[in-house]
Amino acid sequence: MRRLPPLSALRAFEAAARHLSFTKAAEELHVTQAAISHQVKALEEHLGRPLFRRLTRALRLTPAGEAYRPVLTEAFEAIERATRRLQAESERQGVLNISLTPAFMSRWLIPRLGYWQEAHPEIELRLTSTPKLADFSRDGIDLAVRHGRGAWPGLIAHRLFQSENVPVCSPALVNGPLPLAKPADLAHHTLLHDFVEPELWRIWLAAVGVEGVDPDRGLRLSDSADTIQAAIAGSGVAMTRRALIGLDLAAGRLVIPFDIRLPSEYAFYIVYPEASAERPMIRMFRDWVLEQVAAETPGG
């Protein structure tokens, strides 16, 4: 039975040793400097000897660190080469692994998958639904859709659409016994929240100056995909991103009772590693998504 140190600690040390800097290692691995320091300290405790000499304004390797670093660098390079070979094999087999948020997958991509399959029947998509960020070097993911500001080191990001938070509900609620004519009427309805972004209602109510509505009450669900589905079922009023409900609005399953939008500094992006920019399948899927977005965007 192998008794290896944690992989995260080995990666932290190898990056820090290569850069002779915890800060640069943190930037490379997309974590904090404190996380790198903690992982290196844990590795040193595991090995029972120091790997760095921590000087006032510099970092130096100890003899043990000098001996350990090239072995780890060679091992990580071997893993990277093996990963690339597997990716190349997937390319030949026509398989594309994609990571998406649950809401984007269920509310935006799945209703449009038929168009993709018709255009590219030779490419098999393997879709993973998760709110966590994909680790391209570890998870075998080729491409992902992320929600953020669009700046992820080492990744190419193409903006899909800006986030606009809007209240949505079933048409039956708007015209029911307790009509939704103005934001204050929300006091008579169930607010639908998701655990991933529980503050959306509080932010929106504060931004539009609504008083007398408790932003914390209501029904809480696992993610925004579930809150949208609950709104369609008439269970209450959800706060969600307009880009995810275009087809539901067009089909009359949802309505925006008062079109007071709350623009966000965040947007949805399709992202992939810089090293994968020339892979044909990634280019095809990226271009197809961008074409779909442009065709459905007013003026696009």
Describe this structure in words.
By secondary structure, the protein is of the alpha/beta class. It folds into two domains: 7-86, Arc Repressor Mutant, subunit A, CATH 1.10.10.10; 94-300, D-Maltodextrin-Binding Protein, domain 2 (3-Layer(aba) Sandwich). The protein is 42% helix and 21% strand. The chain has eleven helices and ten strands. The strands form two sheets. It has an eight-stranded mixed beta sheet with strand order 4-3-5-10-6-9-7-8, sandwiched between helices. Strands 1-2 form a two-stranded antiparallel sheet. A hairpin with a 4-residue loop joins strand 1 (52-54) and strand 2. Helix 1 (7-19) packs across helix 3 (33-47) and helix 1 packs across helix 4 (63-93). It starts with 6 loop residues before the first helix and ends with a helix. The model has no long low-confidence stretch (mean pLDDT 88).
Structure, briefly:
By secondary structure, the chain is of the alpha/beta class.
